Amino acid sequence: MTVYFPEVSKVLYEGKKTDNPLAFRYYDPQRVVGEKTMEEHLRFSVAYWHTFVAGGKDMFGSDSAQRPWDNLTDPMEIAKARVYAAFEFMEKMQIPYFCFHDVDVAPEGSNLKESLKNLDEIAALMKELMAKTGKKLLWGTTNLFSHPRFMHGAATSPNADVFAYAAARVKHTMEITKELGGENYVFWGGREGYETLLNTDLKLELDNLARFLHMAVDYAKKIGFTGQFLIEPKPKEPTKHQYDYDVATVLGFLRTYGLEKDFKVNIEANHATLAGHTFQHELRLARVNGILGSVDANQGDELLGWDTDQFPTNVYTTTLAMYEILLNGGLAPGGLNFDAKVRRGSFEPVDLFYAHIAGMDAFAHGLLVADRLLTSGALEEFVADRYRSYRSGIGEQIVQGKVGFEELSAYALEHDQITLGSGRQELLEAILNRYILEV
Ligand code: XUL
Ligand code: CO
Known about the structure:
The protein has 16 helices and twelve strands. It is an alpha/beta fold.
């Protein structure tokens, strides 16, 4: 059998003193943190599209990456070679999960029927290798954005034939996801948005998007697919305005259309920053509303305003992300999917290993720091104390709904000499730094 990564054997935990760049310095899968192992906490996943399909093309240049599995001519043979490369990679990297779009894994046929058949054939091979290796599918999704038929949207296209076509594709990918034991199914609204309101019936498009999602829920029930449905918010790119702008927008949409019980969100760090939020803000908002489902683990570049999809290496960010994830009680059945790509100049196959090791160690480090922070209570106790006025007296009455404006006015007239406490931001930031540097 062809070996696609002969230069790498299994990547193992060697501890933070190691000089071996092909070893983990923090990710120690069986190490217990709190009540779970690192592997159970982190649930890492590789993104099929970035790691096995993309070749480094950008607006100014063609593919640059060396991908030995692509050195074939027949598209189905390439698709099969990619499956073998993917499983070799996951085994060597100790990554338990993967995620894919339908078109990542199988080539398009000359018509819909042929495209679906290609997908079935590759899915069968995946199933076989999953059984052999124990690797699992975190989520499946359907690409409703690359083909020109989706130029005006899919579920929000002005053309009903496109809506029908998109439904057929989602139906099929959902069946494949079920067949492969996928634990989630993602909807990222690639072209579900608009370029200009001058040509757009915004109300009909939003209604249609909701109709589409209701149909997906109904079909999942019908076939017994019990995976978690996830919406992945993103504010812009490719469309100027995307309907799933951010967590707050998605929450409003789900509640408006009665979908809030059936969907959670898949939060991507770089999408959060594109929306003008921190990654932690999006995780927090989803968590406190009970819809934090899964994470696309990457990072953007603060100096660039687009979706650079870089591997997450910023330990400050991974710490705060893991802080939210621990407070959420974990992500399962979601996970941490590396929706990230190596830079165009990192074109050798071994760079895929360096990139994933960097991301996995950054999140493992973040997990250790977040766990220690939470155990110490350093931040939580400060926050609890900051809001103590709502646990007794007039504050408690506000929270319990026992007073209105009249009672509050009477109270304020008697208590207008107010004493405030410091927010202590700099002290808290120093505490956070201390914990990050200590691990
Ligand atoms: C695009 C993006 C997608 C989704 C799945 O920005 O993040 O790859 O994760 O369609
Ligand atoms: Co993503």
